[in-house]
Amino acid sequence: MPIFEYICKKCGQEFEKLVFGNQKVTCTKCNSSDVQKKFSVFGVSGVENPTSSGCSSCSSGSCSSCK
Ligand SMILES: [Zn+2]
Q: CATH number of the domain at 3-52, please?
């Protein structure tokens, strides 16, 4: 089950959401649907959450086995 990180573009709330298929994601704080998924490939500023990056075979979080 995929858990994605989102950031609300309206209030700035960051949250994680379990998403099934094309389920619509709304902010957990203001219930806005104007949210942006945080892709790891967008992590230009580096690691901000050590628990969600990297895998058993690397430490950068960007190899083929990383999620
Ligand atoms: Zn919000």
A: 2.20.28
